[in-house]
Amino acid sequence: MNQNVDDLRSLVSGCFGDMDLxxxxxxxxxxxxxxxxxxxLERDIPLRTYLSFFEDYLTDTGASxxxxxxxxxxxxxxxxxxxxx
Length: 85
Prior knowledge:
16% of the residues are buried. Helix content is 60%, strand content 0%. The longest helix is centred in the middle third of the chain and has 16 residues, at 27-42. By secondary structure, it is mainly alpha-helical. It is built from 4 helices and no strands. The chain has one domain. Helix 3 (47-61) packs antiparallel against helix 4. The chain has helices at 2-9, 27-42, 47-61, 65-76.
């Protein structure tokens, strides 16, 4: 499972804006977030592990604790995975 987890973890950065580190605000970010969620569901990745991918990524970028909390709320919000039209 470690290889699967590492492969999935490497996809997390594509779910965020390059400059603002905001989760799934651009249509491409939304699509990548959906793809990652589906892959995790197909591989039976636990929610706790899924969320840790995002927390670890944001921590590694130097994001503040408040920004990390806000983005994890967005990751957990199902509406984030739908394209905003």
